[in-house]
Amino acid sequence: MSEVDIGMGKAGRRAYSLDEVAIVPSRRTRDPEDVDLAWEIDAFRFELPVIASGMDGVVSPTTAIAFGQLGAVAALNLEGLWTRYEDPTELLVEIAEAPDDEVSERLRAIYREPVKPDLIGQRVKEIRKAGVISCGAVTPHRVEDLTDAIVAAELDLLVIQGTVVSAEHVTKGVDDPLNLKTFVRRLDLPVLVGGCSSYQAALHLMRTGAAGILVGVGAGRSSSTRRVLGTGVAQATAIADARAARMRHLDETGVYVHIIADGGMATGGDIAKAIVCGADAVMLGAPFAAAVDAPGRGHHWGLAAAHPTLPRGSRVAVGTRGTLEQILTGPAPDDRGDLNLMGALRRAMALCGHATLKELQKADLVVTS
């Protein structure tokens, strides 16, 4: 693969963001009503290829139920406010209304409250009682501590999510570092792991036995990882590299691992391009934070924003733009592209003549920049 000279002593690959590519229409078009947006992972089928990101400003037990009823799925942050406090409603208001120069300190203070394992079971029970698939998100360094509570809660789908997740985390002074290759296989539920942004990292995560991997590092609007840590890969290239890793893993094992594009998407067109690059579904946070019924009241923040010594990202104000249902399935009153994301995806597939997400993955792309 060709490289670009950065200077006399260093070269790098040219990478592309989703904004820099476009889908090429095929020779036929299709009625949008004949398009199927459903996807399956393990034993679960979802009518829409969307996972709401495990952010406290986006997912509460109430919104998790709403997403499920709309045909999507939402990951509740099992280390977030809903598992630290019996009722964090007032704290969510406080975070939303805190002055900009005080919000980082307030976030760190609020998140010092420890996670309560009993609340994990209580929240999962609330979601399952509503008849929707329950999904929870944890970070790699806390997943072993919370495993007993997660298993006892009978969670349906687990997301192990960090800025960068590797198959084996190595650290001095720890006798038994987290090894996802053995850990994932011990769990009797499908697991999604990530993020990653390279071919080798994606392949190693697939070899852990995960049902799916999250692809994207520093791509989302809630992340300042590229600025603070200097790491990240443009999303279109990251997804395409993971697609190549999936092909190799499928050849080696016969096992298909799902790719979940995480970050860098704001419109239905972005979602369509992510799927053409190779994604099976997408994980969205910021677009849903703009819902009037989201818990963040027009704001979002990641768990890393409350890090005690190196916060990455802070509260981001996005305003409000409509209900969760309007953002996901419409209707949209204008052409800004941030409402009716699934309607836009459906029409993009119809215009390109593709009836299923698997067919859309075969579409051609052009580089526009």
Write a structural description:
With about 375 residues, the protein is α/β, with parallel strands linked by helices. It has a single domain (about 5-365), classed as Aldolase class I (TIM Barrel, Alpha-Beta Barrel). It is built from 14 helices and 16 strands. The protein has helices at about 60-70, 90-95, 105-110, 115-130, 140-155, 180-185, 200-205, 225-230, 235-255, 270-275, 285-290, 325-330, 340-350, 355-360; strands spanning about 5, 10-15, 20-25, 40, 45, 50, 75, 135-140, 155-160, 190-195, 210-215, 260, 280-285, 300, 315, 365. The strands form 5 sheets. It has an 8-stranded parallel beta barrel, surrounded by 5 helices. Strands 1-2 form a two-stranded antiparallel sheet. A two-stranded antiparallel ribbon has the order 3-16. Strand 12, helix 10 and strand 13 form a beta-alpha-beta unit. Helix 1 runs parallel beside helix 4 and helix 7 (about 200-205) packs across helix 9. The chain is globular. Residues about 170-175 and about 220-225 have low confidence and may be disordered.
